[in-house]
Amino acid sequence: MFFRVVSKNYQHILALVFAVKEINKNPKILPNFTLGFHIYDSYYDVKWTCYTTMQLISMGNRFVPNYSCDIQDNLVAVIGGPSSKISLEVANVLDIYKIPQLLYGFGPMRIANTQLLPFYRMVPDEAHQYMGILQLLRHFNWTWVGFVADNNANGERFLQRMLPVFSENGICLALSKIYPRMSFDNDFEEQKEWLFKIYDMVMTSTATALIFYGDCNSMVSLRYFLFLPEMEDTTKKPKSKVWILTAQMEFTSTVFHRSWDIQVIHGSISLAIHSNDLLGFHQFIQSRNPSKAKEDGFIRDFWEQAFGCLFPDSDLGNIDGDICTGEERLEDLPGAYFEMSMTGYSYNVYNAVYAVAHALHAMHSSRSKSRAMMQEEGRSRENPPAWQIHHFLRWVSFNNSAGEEVSFDLNRELMTGFDVINWVTFPNQSFIRVKVGRMNPQAPPEQALSVNEDTIVWHSWFNQAQPLSVCNDNCLPGYRKKMKEGEPFCCYDCISCPEGKISSLNDMEECFTCPEDRYPNKDKNECIAKVVTFLSYVEPLGIGLSITAISLIVITVLVLGTFMKHHNTPIVKANNRNLTYMLLVSLLLCFLSALLFIGQPQKITCLFRQSAFGITFSVAVSSILAKTITVVLAFMATKPGSRMRIWMGKRVANLIVVCCSLIQAGICAVWLATSPPFPDANIHSMTKEIFLECNEASPTMFYCVLGYMGFLAITSLSVAFFARKLPDTFNEAKLITFSMLVFCSVWLSFVPTYLSTTGKYMVAVEIFSILASTAGLLHLIFLPKCYIIVLRPQLNNREQLIRINLRKS
After folding, report:
1. For residues 658 and 294, what is the distance between their CA atoms, to the nearest angstrom?
2. Which of 330, 444, 512, 799 has its CA 20 to 30 A from that of 625?
3. DSSP 471-526
4. What does the alpha-carbon distance between residue 77 and residue 356 come to, in Å, rounded to a whole number?
């Protein structure tokens, strides 16, 4: 098996050794075989990678590619390191021999030219990490973010792929920078100057959330980047930023970082390769000691680097520094140098070894019968070629010692997800990785990410509150976004919603209209249910109108009773007694019709209230017209030789009332037959109310009724006006003239008032007009007569009438 080694990656080696030892001790897995391994270093160089890969397929320690006669050292699989570039170079060689390579880090992305390479990924495809980062940004509502990448092609690929996706999800990049990885050559000062420029751009950016895209060793670059002001002894200090780190990155340090502050990383969020605690692994690590692990060729170098000491038998001659005693404790090391808990990379190494072992076990079990037959026939047993393990490796499935299932999907990727990690650092260079969530690529997109925000520790910069990372403050409900010209779409102004519209959420693109049965509140952020109203008997306005109508009804009844009691008196008999009774009854019905307009509209009241009002008023006005014409005819009949005497009598007056009333009744009949009124809910006329009303159905017919009534009134007023100076015992013509003036004034003012009001006040205007006009007729025509009948009865006799007539003549 193949490895690349750095100081902190020593745990990866221990995970390999731990897994191999467990397998060789387990009689149920490969009982007749011993699993071994070789470790090679790639030196982070493509040429050395190709060279060491060719060594894998050579015989023993001799570099003779494509030739092997050693049946004991049989290469069956390669476990590749965390670098995708190195893994691709290894795969290009191994693909010739169809030797499987298990990547315990992120390998090349699935593209056409790498799809057939013998990769088995122990982590999800990197495209899933892209979506995980997107969902993290959406979860925390970070729409204005910065992007910084260590110098690698993956950072550029991330931008190319995710920029359109970010835009679709309302996320903008405040800046995007890919800086060169530091190298100690002649251009070091130039690179450092360039890094300072990037540092200033990052720290002065208004974006709080910053994505740092790197590989397994990029933490070293990030720490150098954040330590730049300290190196130059400037007054610049890191500003309040929250870093979003990729799953490839481990918290690593070199010997130069021992005194560097790691608090700037505190509170960072990252996706991480999933890991779990393995039974016995912690004890295995604790048992590591340079004096006891003689077979471990890495432990002394690791020990010296991690603890910053040297062993006395070192080849360096005089030792200037601490002496390694071998009794140092691994658990005392800061996490940046070594972690006692299993990292994601180590967990993948462990699972990769077991996957190969289980695949070998399945392959040899399936060949047991054929091997027995070959031995009976005297043929030698040969080790199976490496390419045959692919079939068994692809379908391998088992539970590891942590109880988790290990299996590959159809794309040869381990069916696993990412952990969401919150990095909590301490001043003594130690840190802990707190699992605060999970990213499951197999779940539906809306359920893939789960985060427990209560367990997240943010940097003290943010006062333990979730940081905001937006271009400007959110537009609150009641406002909408207005794009700024020349700025990214994440930067906008907030303008208030127009009248009649609301916005109920933050950062809405457009305001919307409330449903018809609701209206916007004062702040324009909520729709309130409209109140259902109608002119009822229990509200003050309805009570007042009802009492007024009933009072006038009582007065009319009293007047009618008074006239009937004094039925044979001259003042009652004067000017057609029957017309007087007809007028009083019609006025009584007019007052009663006003009550039909009060209360919740019903089908029957809506059907007849306007018709009843129109017909009764027409009868009343027709009666007044008949009385006026009677006065005129009576005066004209007194002239010598006048032929008007033939028109005198009750029949002419009754004919006038009947004909005029029938015309109005005909109009109302046509109205009810063609477009009858009906109960309706008016939701448009008033902003805050739904008014229950009677829909007149045909406004034309309604105004025809009013128009005809107005025609009768004007006719009566005209005739009465011309007859006002005619001799009359009780000034009948003058009283009719004044009453009709009041009547016409009321109804002329009714039309504009009615059209300018809404809701129950429109109904109240009509009721008031009915009561006022009818009360005017009642009081101006009959009050003087009632005064004479009740208070001046001496004037109500025949002799007095003759004397008055003689005086007038």
Report:
1. 131
2. 799
3. SSPPPPTTEEEEEPTTS-TT-EEEEEPPTTEE--STT-SS-EEPPTTEEE-TTSS-
4. 7
What is the identity of the amino acid at 571?
A: I
Nearest CA to 77 out of 275, 504, 363, 435 is that of 363
Contact 171, 137 (CB under 8 A): yes
Q: In residues, how long is the chain? A: 809
pLDDT over 60 at 243, yes or no: yes
State the number of CA atoms in the 13 A half-sphere of 516 facing the CB: 7
Q: Which residues of 131-164 are buried (b: 16+ CB within 10 A; e: fewer)?
A: bbbbbbbeebbbbbbbbbbbebebbebbbeebee
Place of tokens 């040869």: 412
Tell me which DSSP letter residue 413 carries: B
Amino acid, res. 754: Y
CA atoms lying within 13 Å on the CB side of residue 655: 8
Beta bridge partners of 310: 323
Residue with tokens 């000062």: 189
Q: Map out the domains of the chain with their CATH numbers.
A: 10-124+278-289+343-415 (3.40.50.2300), 126-272+419-462 (3.40.50.2300), 479-529 (no CATH), 540-728+758-769 (1.20.1070.10)
Report the C-alpha gap between 809 and 793 in whole angstroms: 23
Q: Which residues contact 198 (CB under 8 A, 6 or more apart)?
A: 148, 177, 179, 225
Helix or strand holding residue 120 (H, E) = strand 119-121
Whether the Cβ atoms of residue 105 and residue 120 lie closer than 8 Å to each other: no
Query: And the tokens for 593?
Result: 């019709």
Confidence class of residue 262 from pLDDT cuts 50, 70 and 90? confident
CA angle 389, 365, 410 (to 5 degrees): 40
Nearest residue to 325 (alpha-carbon basis) of 338, 339, 307? 307
Could you give the CA distance from residue 703 to residue 701 in angstroms, rounded to a whole number? Answer: 5
Please report, to the nearest 10 degrees, the dihedral formed by the alpha carbons of residues 560, 562, 566, 569 taken in order.
Answer: -80
Residue with tokens 């880090």: 105
Angle 225-227-233 from CA coordinates, rounded to 5°: 130
Phi/psi at 71 (5° precision): -80, -10
CA dihedral (626, 631, 635, 638) in degrees, to 10, reads 80
Average pLDDT over every residue of 682-701:
88
- pLDDT at 571 exceeding the cut of 60: yes
Strands (E), 23-105: 78-80, 101-103
Distance in angstroms (rounded) separating the CA atoms of residues 448 and 130:
13
Determine the pLDDT at residue 551: 94
Q: What is the pLDDT of residue 70?
A: 53
- Going by C-alpha positions, the residue among 785, 651, 777 that lies closest to residue 729 is 785
- d(Cα 451, Cα 436) in Å, to the nearest integer? 6
Distance separating alpha carbons of residues 621 and 623, to the nearest angstrom: 5
Strands 501-502 and 512-513: antiparallel
87 in Cβ contact with 108 (< 8 Å): yes
What integer is the mean pLDDT of 173-197?
Answer: 73
- Only one residue has tokens 């000034």, namely 731
**Within 13 Å, how many C-alpha atoms sit on residue 447's CB side?**
3
**Residue 177, φ and ψ in degrees, nearest 5:** -135, 135
- Given a contact cutoff of 8 angstroms between Cβ atoms, the answer to whether 388 and 75 are in contact is no
Q: Which residue has the tokens 């034309």?
A: 700
For the chain, the 3-state helix, strand and coil shares in percent, each to the nearest 5, are 50, 15, 40
At 259, is the secondary structure helix, strand, or coil? coil
Q: Give the span between the Cα atoms of 162 and 84, in whole angstroms.
A: 19
Q: In the numeric block, which tokens belong to residue 687?
A: 């902003």
pTM: 0.69
Q: Is 546 a residue whose pLDDT tops 60? A: yes
Q: Which residues pair with 209 in a beta bridge?
A: 145, 242
| SS3 at position 145 | strand
Average pLDDT over residues 376-395: 67
